[in-house]
Design brief:
By secondary structure, the chain is mainly alpha-helical. The protein has 18 helices and no strands. The longest helix is centred in the middle third of the chain and has 50 residues.
Length: 433
Amino acid sequence: MSTTTLLLVGSAVFFTILAGIGFVTSRWIGHTEDFLVAGRQINWYVVGLAIAAMAWSSGFFALFSKFAIHFGFFAALSSMIATAIGYYVYGVYFTPFARTLGSQSIGEFFEMRYDVKTRTVVSLYLGLAMMIFLPATSLGVAFILKGYAGLPIIQSATGMILIIFVICIAGGLWGAAITDLVQAVIGYGTLAVVFGLMVTQVGGYEWLVNNVPEASTAFAFPGRFGFGLGADSYVTWILLWGAMVLFGSPYYWLLANAPRSDADAKNGFRLASAMVFFLAFFVSLLPLYAYGAVPEQFQLMGGQVPAEGAVGVVAHMIPSGVGALLMVTVIASNVSSQTTTSLGGIAAWSRDVYQRLFRPDADPHEMLVPTRIITVVFFVVGWALVFVGDIQALLGVVLTILGISALILLAGALSKSITPTSASSDRLRWTSL
């Protein structure tokens, strides 16, 4: 059976399961609170697995594969470890603050701390960031599938977005959370099997040192990363993944408010932190196995495969069935993580912009239909951005927006010195810059 056939069969089985999840969870939705925060009834382990599933996403894997191959093992490892620490800090120290406020979205906090204008401006930008994140990560999957099975990029990305849309429109955060749980179990299990195959069939650390091109740089600290504030810096990426993206993203606020209790919220983030800590070593080493085994296939050595597509090369180094399953988990990771992030953007536009400005007296039942209409607009525009085709450019906009949001959020939570005027004007000025 060809790799394409295995991939299609495996994907069909997996997405049949996801469709069933969307159908079942759609029956749990009676109003917008069910849709956006799952009625505040999610268990801690579901929250933890949902967060961990976001870390095992195509965007993380593609970016950190590039870090490992271009800049060295520690460049990739440090960013993932920073993410794990960030989850722990957010869960233990910040979720009680977020839950005590009683706000379902991050935008509601901005209004409580600043004013309506700040909430509107920030929420517009956050929704935009999440919408741009959707085509960026879907393109990441499409490039990986192109390297693995030669599938067309635009069609693959379009298929990703369509599947995510179906889950969002049907099941809301219930559908996203349960999908994340399924994906995390399958994804982390498959990754452990793949890593075990690499160690037993290819070799251990000594093999990597002897076969990875320029291994003295790849496994030496600090590698090709520096300590300034530039693009290739430990400081930049540790701050970005360990704090800015985490505190600036609306979907972590949603997940902080979805559990039944403060203890469940904390334990969920603790579980995610532990899982991502171990994931960091897998994600940092697997690309180097591919680079060490067939360096001639990579662009750095004159080949055609970009460093971001290393996972596709790994899939060809293992038994075909396991390789196809690895590709299915790459697809699944994008679906699960982007379902949750998309809901965060939709919540920003629905609750923090539309309801606040146009229907402030609408109850949760009355907001359900407008929220779903906003969902359709969100996905149609996001799909159109697939044709930009430049992942780095799309992610550059996303990370800029989230970083500024995190600074305004933390400044507002920790200090009274920042004013409503400066918060909203700084958002416009710095994002434009």
